[in-house]
Amino acid sequence: MAGKDGDRMKIVVSIKQVPDTTEVRIDPKTNTLIRDNVPSIINPDDMNAIEAALQLKDKNPGSEVTLVCMGPTQADVALREGLAMGADRAILITDRAFGGSDTWATSNVIATVIQELDYDVVFCGRQAIDGDTAQVGPQIAERLDIPQVTYISNIEQKSEDTFVVQRKTEDGYFEVEVKTPCLFTCIKELNTPRYPHMRGIMEAFEDDDNVERWTNDKLNIPAEMIGLRSSPTRVKRTFVPEQKKAGIVIPDANEEEVKKVFEDLKLKHYI
């Protein structure tokens, strides 16, 4: 923890590799995602989480940022991108036993990994663009039994073990003071993720050993806590919303035309 080594902090960031939603298509016959030839990216909110961790590291010299990512072997690329940005350590959690895990099972796995690490602060993105549940971060905090603040749009370190963060809500913002160890979920308003420099990219991708691979042989998580069979969530249907017809535009409408529009809307019970 931070108090042991002065202002040095152990920071963990949970990230996810997701399909680029601008390229995602859905099979009209099966209503499932077509993943063939769809590029993968680091989940956008997770990029803000990485940046928040790196800024905290910059303010606390000697601190260490560890990235953890649960996914298939190709998620290795996402972790290397995070290393290129400035993270110090990367752990890929990959095992067929984890396949099909929903948010509950996923958080069980990630929390187990974090428990194996020395940590002060855990950063997560608000939510993943391929699921939009915003559940994994809070579920990790519950599994770790640490305080959490979600949807943070600003963070200030008050002391070596205390933070004041601004939390965004539908009604505005409010400030929360929290002590470490703790977990934050980040939104895009928090920061602008940095670009990796060329040296960082070369160092991140030149050595196969830069990314550690952890399987369930190391973690020993019970089968009833991981994988598809142990996931209580069931997706009933995935579909593309029907395209709505273009609206009617009346340029330079006079008073009579406006009245007619309102009358039509009333007849259709829209107003």
Question: What do these coordinates show?
Answer:
- It is a single chain.
- The protein is built from 7 helices and 13 strands.
- The protein is an alpha/beta fold.
- It has a single domain (2-230), classed as Rossmann fold (3-Layer(aba) Sandwich), CATH 3.40.50.620.
- Strands 11-10-9-12-8-1-6-7-13 form a 9-stranded mixed sheet, sandwiched between helices. It has a two-stranded antiparallel sheet with strand order 2-5. The protein has a two-stranded antiparallel ribbon with strand order 3-4.
Please name the defining characteristics of this protein.
single chain, about 270 residues, alpha/beta, Rossmann fold, nine-stranded mixed sheet, 7 helices, 13 strands, about 25% strand, globular, disordered N terminus
Shape annotation: globular
Q: In whole angstroms, how far apart are the ends?
A: 58 Å
Strand content: 25-35%
Roughly what percent helix? 25-40%
* Low-pLDDT windows of residues: 1-6
The CATH architecture would be 3-Layer(aba) Sandwich
Compact overview of the structure:
The protein is of the alpha/beta class. The chain has 7 helices and 13 strands.
